[in-house]
Specification:
DNA binding, UPF0335 protein FJQ54_11845, GapR-like, mainly alpha, GapR-like_DNA-bd, 2 domains, 84% helix, 0% strand
Amino acid sequence: MSSANVSAEQLKLFIERIETLEEEKRGIADDIKDTYAEAKANGYDVKTMRTIVRLRKMDTNARAEMEALLDTYKAALGLEI
């Protein structure tokens, strides 16, 4: 077997793995969409839920820094309650 054949076969396997993972990713994205739709049907605010999910992904220090900066900007604009 020549090195060109081995490389081509390996490339094909990588491409097929990527295609399979992309399909799984689409399935997971659909599941997430369905979960948000279910939450909305139960009266939850999806936009706020997405924000919470994004915040929970953040590093604790990065989140604290962002929230402090947000508070500073809100105060500067008179948005503090």
